[in-house]
Write a structure and sequence with these properties.
alpha/beta, Rossmann fold, seven-stranded parallel β-sheet
Length: 382
């Protein structure tokens, strides 16, 4: 079975959506199955081609050179002027997989699968750039109707799709995000020390990882940290690890104000994948009070690295973390402050959360998710 994969996500900086595309495709291609994947990407003549996944028996790349370059394709995409995507690739496929919310048209005999990661743009439109909001509202409904199958990354997202788009439940399959346990595990002190030195981090720190944007409730974290007991703040810095996001200016201003007041806040910027496990492992506590998540990979990564976690009780997060964390209302900054103090001042509680988190994280693996994907793709073969 030949499966085409729309490949634009595979060549962008690390995001939750991009990680899902890369990790799931890589794991599926390494299984002993009858499914071959071909990642289709527009040729960029001024850039060196660096495959994010090493080609193997079941995976290869297709560079499209005849169609207008990627920059022009983005214009066509925004306008909704699509050629059948398998025609653009000059290939025949049994199925075409679209990981990023929107399924482009394909030829009649080609089945299409689209991944919907969350409906945050429906729940919190104020947290989405207007042009992206307009694009999603216009094309996601069309994609859902066009696709032979819809993939959701959590049961919560599946329920949202059913509710807001009136889609039959049997058209939607859940394939979870996961964590690579060969990378995310408690790292030894030497690796932690090296990462701490690289990013100039304090000996003890409270950690947040993710894009610096309003939906992640970074201002709530800042407010909760500022309200902590002075001794706790003296012993623990706050580390915000993540790239620049949309509408982050108020967050940056809040950070600058607190730093001017003497608060120990460190912003690392974007952290590459290879540094994240040690960054997690060195944290005393991971805090993630997001307003909405389609899945929520960072808390899972933190748990896999043996770090106590505080997260919100909304959207898909309870589904991912189970009873292995402390859950709070994202809007309740006082509750975040109290929970941070409780964990940092109670070593027995912190150790209990570490052990529960390690066990919970084991429930999610890319191999398990890949097996589900292969079964689904085979069911679509005509």
């Amino acid at each position: 079975m030949r499966v085409g994969v729309e490949g634009s996500l595979f060549f962008k900086p690390r995001t939750g959506v991009g990680q899902y595309a890369i990790k799931l495709t890589e794991a599926a291609s390494q299984l002993d199955s009858n499914v071959d994947f071909e990642i289709v990407r527009h040729w960029l003549p001024l850039r060196k081609f660096k495959p994010p996944i090493k080609p193997n028996k079941h995976l290869r790349y297709r560079l499209v050179k005849w169609f207008p370059p990627a920059v022009y394709f983005q214009v066509f995409k925004r306008l909704g002027t699509f050629l059948p995507y398998d025609l653009v690739a000059l290939r025949k496929y049994d199925c075409f997989l679209f990981y990023n919310f929107v399924a482009f048209p394909v030829r009649k005999k080609t089945r299409s699968v689209v991944v919907i990661h969350d409906l945050s743009y429906v729940h919190y439109p104020q947290f989405v750039l207007k042009k992206n909001l307009d694009y999603l509202n216009k094309f996601v409904p069309r994609s859902i109707k066009r696709a032979a199958r819809i993939l959701a990354v959590s049961e919560h997202t599946k329920a949202d799709i059913i509710k807001y788009y009136d889609i039959p439940a049997d058209k939607i399959s859940v394939i979870y995000n996961a964590v690579d346990h060969s990378e995310y595990y408690p790292r030894p002190a030497k690796e932690v020390s090296a990462v701490r030195s690289k990013y100039k981090l304090p000996a003890k720190y409270i950690l947040f990882t993710g894009t610096i944007e309003p939906r992640k409730n970074v201002e709530g974290i800042l407010g909760a940290y500022a309200a902590l007991d002075e001794q706790v703040k003296k012993d623990h810095g706050l580390v915000l690890a993540g790239g620049k996001g949309w509408n982050d200016e108020p967050i940056r201003q809040a950070i600058d104000k607190l730093k001017s007041a003497g608060e120990k806040i460190i912003c690392t910027g974007y952290v590459p994948d290879e540094d994240l496990p040690a960054l997690f492992s060195g944290a005393s506590l991971f805090v993630y009070p997001s307003f909405y998540e389609g899945f929520g990979i960072p808390p899972l990564e933190a748990m896999a690295c043996g770090v106590p976690v505080i997260t919100a009780d909304n959207s898909s997060l309870p589904e991912v973390v189970g009873d292995a964390v402390i859950m709070i209302k994202a809007e309740n900054i006082a509750a975040i402050t109290q929970s941070i103090s409780k964990v940092l001042n109670d070593s027995q509680l912190a150790n209990s959360l570490r052990q529960k988190g390690l066990e919970q994280a084991k429930k999610f693996s890319w191999e398990k998710s890949a097996q589900t994907l292969i079964t689904l793709l085979n069911s679509l073969k005509s």
